[in-house]
Specification:
Elements lengths: L7 H11 L8 H10 L6 H14 L2 E4 L8 E4 L10 E5 L5 E4 L2 H14 L9 E4 L2 H7 L2
Parallel strand pairs: 3-5
Antiparallel strand pairs: 1-2, 3-4
Helix pairs in contact: 1-3, 2-3
């Protein structure tokens, strides 16, 4: 499967994501990072390669808010990143993903008592991040 990315642009996109595993990027972020490396990649090319990476299971796509750009994250072959929750700062827009035993307990409670299964990878909690809270208190 690795051979389907053996174009210079495909390898660049994969490496940008792989080198920052665990972080979320939009297609525009990938374009900006490729330009910082002195290599221009068009938006259609980025999306085409992201689609291939998603189909191969190496990249996961997140749509956090309707009307906002999707985020992409390299998960590699481990696929261990499928059960985390997202925290989105309403002030700066930062998106964090967290593995949290307490939230897992809440999810279990909701399933056990209400028969509703929460999908952690699609769950977003909104609030204010530490940096924005500290900046407000200055």
């Amino acid at each position: 499967m690795e051979n389907s990315y053996n174009t210079k642009q495909g390898e660049l996109i994969l490496n940008i994501l792989k080198n920052a595993a665990g972080e979320h990027f939009t297609a525009d972020d990938i374009i900006r990072l490729s330009e910082q490396e002195g290599r221009k990649v068009g938006k259609a090319t980025v999306y085409r390669h992201l689609d291939k990476l998603i189909r191969s299971g190496k990249v996961r796509k997140y749509i956090v808010e309707e009307g906002m750009s999707a985020c992409f994250e390299y998960v590699g072959a481990s696929h261990s990143c499928h059960s985390h929750y997202h925290l989105k700062c309403s002030s700066c827009g930062e998106l964090l993903h967290v593995k949290c035993d307490f939230l897992d307990e809440v999810s279990s409670h909701i399933f056990g008592h209400h028969g509703f299964e929460i999908k952690p990878e699609k769950t977003v909690l909104y609030g204010i991040c530490k940096n924005c809270r500290e900046a407000e208190n200055v």
